[in-house]
Amino acid sequence: MHGIGAPPLQSKRVSGRGSDTPKLTPVTENAQQQPPAPSTDLPTQYAPADVEGPLYERWVERGYFEADEKSDKPPYTIVIPPPNVTGSLHLGHAFEHTLIDALTRRKRMQGYETLWQPGMDHAGIATQNVVERELAKENKSRHDLGREAFVERVWQWKAESGGQISGQMRRLGDGVAWSRERFTMDEGLSQAVQTIFKRLYDDELIYRAERIINWCPRCLTAISDIEVEYQDDDGELVSMKYGDGDDTIVVATTRAETMLGDTAVAVHPEDERYQHLIGKLVKLPLTDRSIPVVADEHVDPEFGTGAVKVTPAHDPNDFEIGQRHDLPALTIMDEHAVITAHGPFQGLDRLEARSAIVAALRAEGRIVAEKRPYVHSVGHCSRCKTTIEPRLSMQWWVKVGPLAKAAGDAVRDGRVKIHPQEMEKRYFDWVDNLHDWCISRQLWWGHRIPVWYGPNGEVVCVGPDEEPPSGEGWRQDTDVLDTWFSSGLWPFSTLGWPEQTESLAKFYPNSVLVTGYDILFFWVARMMMFGLYAMDGTPPFHTIALHGMVRDQFGKKMSKSFGNAVNPLDWMDKYGSDALRFTLARGANPGVDVPIGEDWVQGSRNFANKIWNATRFALMNGATVDGPLPDPSKMSSTDRWILSRLNTVVAEVDAFYDDYQFAKLSDSLFHFAWDEVFDWYVELSKTTFQAGGEAAEVSKRVLGEVLDVTLKLLHPVVPFVTETLWTTLTGGESVVIADWPKDSGFRDADAEREIESLQSVITEVRRFRADQGLQPGQRVPARLTLDGTPFAAHETAIRQLLRLQPEGDAFTATATLPVAGAEVALDLSGTIDVAAERKRLAKDLAAAEKEKAQANAKLGNEAFLAKAPDHVVEKIRTRLSKAEEDIARIQAQLERLPQA
């Protein structure tokens, strides 16, 4: 693999039949309807739509994906990153699920008790928004229904419309344990949420405080720092004058409306320009208030005027300054971002107020400078894209300090591995600098905070086995918990925690977490903190395997607004699920984004067809898995070569799986299957099959072995086509539960060298034929001198693959090719116009020599080299190298041509 993604699938195309399809007798009976016995009956073409659905249902019915906590097999556990109940399968899901499914299918074949834990997230804000939009169609709001009826309406929506992604996961082939499917709002997980909240509260790791939070005026709730998306917006920077005369001070802001809530101006304590003002009061324009000038080291004297306005209730940095200087915090906007401050701007939206306030300040001569547009980074709600409003609010918080330290230590001391390792720095940068986590949300859908307030100021946190206080004046907190709070418990809550279940004992901790680097902070850090806290210091997983994001074939982020978003179901309908899965796996380099284009999926479909056609050919020619492999002494060098290569590939694939190198293992399997098995071994074996006898029987058994192992190796990534072919080839129950191949240790270096030499002969002659314009099927008389070469016994195969006729009495050697110790003399008389070919090549040679001269001239010009950018010089060097290669190639072709 090269680069960050998988290019359209191509064979090396140096061998075998190329894209030719074996001419096979049509068979109409479908393989999946056959009894469990070896059969040669396969349809002439692979039709994924006829195979995939019934196969998947059979796997589920037979319980192949279920996990038994009573099993004595070693456990292998992976949780699904729970998709939102509102969601449907997108390419990111398909990508991630393909990788997880490949891992679990392989481990199942290796004899592990595998659990791929499925489930969905209740997705608080997203789900509430969906249902509120449905109510809006009825001209109703959630307040018309009331809290209890609205929550019931959400549950009704979930039952009717939520979870469509589950069916789509089946289309993809996800081998999840469906009987264990969980939902973050089901009874068991709700108990887990209440339990850990109570424990954290009792340990003083959860508290309630008034602080600045990120507020979404559209969703009407607080959101955490990691749910804020920053982007560069066009705004305005306004510099305005506070105070009068010698007490004048200039401040700048992009949010002029917040000046109504200013309670100070801050300067650096060592800034000599403002020493005379520190401690004084200055007049705040448009109000009847005066505010102090305070000295604070937070202020950068080099930035702007060196003076900043302080609005403690509407800016996180200003809040901290206010805390240090005991400044009042004036809230001047409501939850809809409408101005509430008394005066002429009351009732205006924040953006309307911004323009009105600037105009009023301008009228008073208070505007010193205005810059428009002023591009600056602005936070937006990740769900609705509304501009976030910092707002002072009473909220619930998790004190993350000790929890984050434990999460960092678990990686530092090696209990948890992050793959690829270079992602560790990003993880440490996050957990080592975590701020306390705001976990309360002003929603109705979600886990309601289990805290009750009494009539006399009492605060009671209630555990799952405790009765909440009752009586007049008692009320429960109206907020719900951040969705990430419950999904942070996912690795152990899904196994029955806080109960000490058999499943928890068997399957915790998880073996590996496979997820995108983009939610390293959202989800992974949360699970690490909660897992270590709840499970007595045992981390939730041994390995965190991070992957990148799926992008279009040009590396651009996929988005409906960009017009490049793809519904994976469309590609599965068109090319089959295996084709989509193989394309995604072949682009999966650890921690790197994955570009994908439709032609790449089409190439993977061609690969599935190639596997199908080659297996049909093998079956029709007697390939078998019956009995042990023959002794190597009875095998041909071709047989020993392919078995040697097969064992090497088994070892390679295992190593790549263990290192989460999905792209490399897919590429290795692709080239082994297509190039070496189908294009070389099958083709070289045809002469043996045609000759019959003991050698043919040996090769049939070897071919059966190679296909058996190759289909098993391919199965985790392309499960459907391999299941159909493997069961037909072997008569086995299912490749899902077959034994994973092991490297037998068999290697034959002599056979590998022999076949590599043979390949070089065939490849070189093919290249010469193509250069001379000969058609692939055109037969040419030839004399082969193979004595003394390691492949002397392969003359029949060489002639068959190269379309070379016996030399005959009138043979004239018009071109001779020495290659790999052999000599191939060809009689091209009557097959090509030698004079015309020489003329064409001479013209090409002159062009290449001209290109070489021009490149040499530029590279020899010191003045040019001194001025030209590095990339321009490198481009000319590349042109020179290409020209020299062309000259050598053309001269070799001219030398090989017969004399005119």
UniProtKB/TrEMBL annotation:
Q: Which GO terms describe its biological process?
A: valyl-tRNA aminoacylation
Q: Which SUPFAM superfamilies match?
A: Anticodon-binding domain of a subclass of class I aminoacyl-tRNA synthetases, Nucleotidylyl transferase, tRNA-binding arm, ValRS/IleRS/LeuRS editing domain
Q: Where is this motif: 'HIGH' region?
A: 83-93
Recorded hits in InterPro entries, A to Z, give:
aa-tRNA-synth_I_CS, aa-tRNA-synth_Ia, Anticodon_Ia_Val, M/V/L/I-tRNA-synth_anticd-bd, Rossmann-like_a/b/a_fold, tRNA-bd_arm, tRNAsynth_Ia_anticodon-bd, Val-tRNA_synth_C_sf
Q: Which residues are ATP-binding?
A: 560
Stretches the record annotates as Disordered:
1-49
EC number(s) stated in the UniProt entry for this protein: 6.1.1.9
Question: Which PROSITE patterns does the entry link to?
Answer: AA_TRNA_LIGASE_I
Q: Which domain of life is it from?
A: Bacteria
Q: Where is the Methionyl/Valyl/Leucyl/Isoleucyl-tRNA synthetase anticodon-binding domain positioned along the sequence? A: 639-780
The Valyl-tRNA synthetase tRNA-binding arm domain is annotated at 833-897
Q: Which reaction does it catalyse?
A: tRNA(Val) + L-valine + ATP = L-valyl-tRNA(Val) + AMP + diphosphate
Q: Coiled-coil regions in this chain?
A: 838-900
Q: What class of enzyme is it?
A: ligase
Positions of short motif 'KMSKS' region: 557-561
* UniProt xrefs under NCBIfam families: PRK05729.1, valS
Q: How does it assemble?
A: Monomer.
| Family designation | Belongs to the class-I aminoacyl-tRNA synthetase family. ValS type 1 subfamily.
Domain remark text: The C-terminal coiled-coil domain is crucial for aminoacylation activity.
Check the record and name the PANTHER family matching this protein.
VALINE--TRNA LIGASE, CHLOROPLASTIC_MITOCHONDRIAL 2 (PTHR11946:SF93), VALYL-TRNA SYNTHETASES (PTHR11946)
Q: Report the protein name in the record.
A: Valine--tRNA ligase
